[in-house]
Amino acid sequence: MTCTACSRRIEKNLNKVEGVQAYVDFATETAHVTMSPAVTREQLVKVVRDAGYDVSSKRSESEQIVWRLLVGGAISLPLAVISMVPGLMPMQWPVIAAILSTPVALWVAWPFHSAAIKNLRHCTTTMDTLVSLGVLIAYLYSVWQLVIGGMETYFEVAAVVPTVVLFGRWLEVRTRRSATDSVRALLAAVPDTATIRRDGQQLEIPTSQVRLGELVVLASGQKMPVDGRVLEGSAQIDNSLITGESVPEQAEPGTQVAAGAINLSGALLLAATAVSANSRIAQIADLVREASSQKAKITSLTDRISSIFVPTVIGISVATYLGWLLATHQPQHALSAAIAVLVIACPCALGIAVPMSLAVATSMGARRGVVIRHPDTLGLLRQVNKIALDKTGTLTTGQLAVTKVIPVAGTDVTPDTAKAYAAAVERGSVHPIARAIVLLDTSLHATDVVETAGTGVAGTVSGVRIEVSRRPAASFANATETKAAIDGAGATTIAIVSVENRSILVLGLEDEVRPEARSAIGALTELGIEATLLSGDQEARVAAVASELGIGRHVAEVTPEAKLQTIESMKAANSGLVVMVGDGLNDVAALTAADVGIAMGSGTHASQSAAGITILDDDPRAIGFAIQLGRRTYRNIQQNLGWAFGYNVILIPVAAFGLLNPMLAGTAMAFSSVSVVLNALRLRQLR
Asked: Quick one: three-class SS letters along 450-487?
């Protein structure tokens, strides 16, 4: 398929088959089909092929385009340069130009000719029709001029236009895989093998072969292969795949865990409650597929223009021929006037009007660390008026840090000494809380360190037995003083340092707000965009971050499914478009469902695959820049289309009345192309 018109055409033909309901997704080149048992795959394949397309498991389109693009670039660049500078033209240049342009006009441009033929069969016209028509007219008219000894040749046009448009097609093909890539990355979070107990033996088998209810053994450091309920053991698990939060959760008998979560400490025995396609991570992947297939496809401006412009020009050309034939009874003169209309009406600059703006915009974005993976997003950004932002890893660093140090009343141990004790016993742990505490001090060392799942870490430091834990205040000998210190820590993650069951220090840990986050939200407000903060974190912490950043609305303790539902409700209640910004696997479904998804560069591959834009340096201020760039780019494209058509349309009546001067035609084409290039370069003024 070459455009969304192709996907609609195939979808329409498939739905004509009795017992079939189909949706054809242009982005993933996939047909989602629900069919009755009486319908066979062979029937559906035949329908697709009868429509002029094919079904294949191979994806060689990108490779084919690359070869055509290399040949087209190698020929069209020198051809265009020499044609524009008369002093560089060798003897018999028209003949040389004809020879050089032939493989480009025929072989390189063949995808456009092929698509134009398919469109003709279905009585439609698209950008492919316009490119094919322009190339063939420029080439054949130039050959005719060469045969009759004329000087009005456009061989460089026949070479440059398909090459430039093909470059845009190559970019499109490269970025069309996002939904498939994000689903693949989601499912890659689940290990390929699982350790199970079966018939008294412990076996390692492929995860896909685990049966419902089977006993799964999980050692410390391993990922959950299936959804399950804990039967034996206790451990801290990293469930950030689902929640997006860096604070681990406690797993103990009766706890439900999801595939992809990481066991940070202790051994667990699980009973599989959902396997393979029924696991929660697989269901989230299905949500991504569904959201991708339902996302509105924006038909390109050029396709919409072509559907009207091409038939109109052909109609004017035919009318010109008939008019001159009736007036002069000279078929040759009538044919010349009709061809002149087609030549001058063909907006050769249209081929570069959109790609040129996108090329400049993407280069400008790259300079600011904004990678535009889907050019369509630049057009969508102009309509955005609401934005949903994930908290952890997007507006905060995603890494826990000690932000509050609260001494417990009645202790004679200084806070600095207590911090050194805590850092010493935590040094051997891989727990996210431990990694934050270790940064406090490096002066002491612990021995006899024991890490107890669900309790904490204990060790001997300078002859004193120290424990760092998250136990309830009531479990300490000085419970009243401990509770007062915990209350003083506010909406933070708590770690308690104790000696002989008496707490001496309470540490409050938070993932710190990025220093640029406040100005980023301020810039979005100035652009008239309403922000919503989304997070799987606790209500108090999310509310505190929203208040600190000046975000009016927040939604806390949300699952990936709830994030998706929030985005869908925002879209349903909104007159504009909605942006989602995130960085984790738990954000993928929401990123895909949003009108525009923006991922952070330090985030997961899945989130970046699901998003149209990636911010490389994680600076949230780049979000506002991307929206400004989108608005300016769309306006620039509209201006380019005006330049691309302007000169040519004005001269159509001149050609129709048989007054076309070759110099006028050449000047019009040159000026329209130069105007497009210069106008696109104006985007570089955006700072």
From this structure: EEECCCEEEEEECCEEEEEECCCHHHCCCHHHHHHHHH
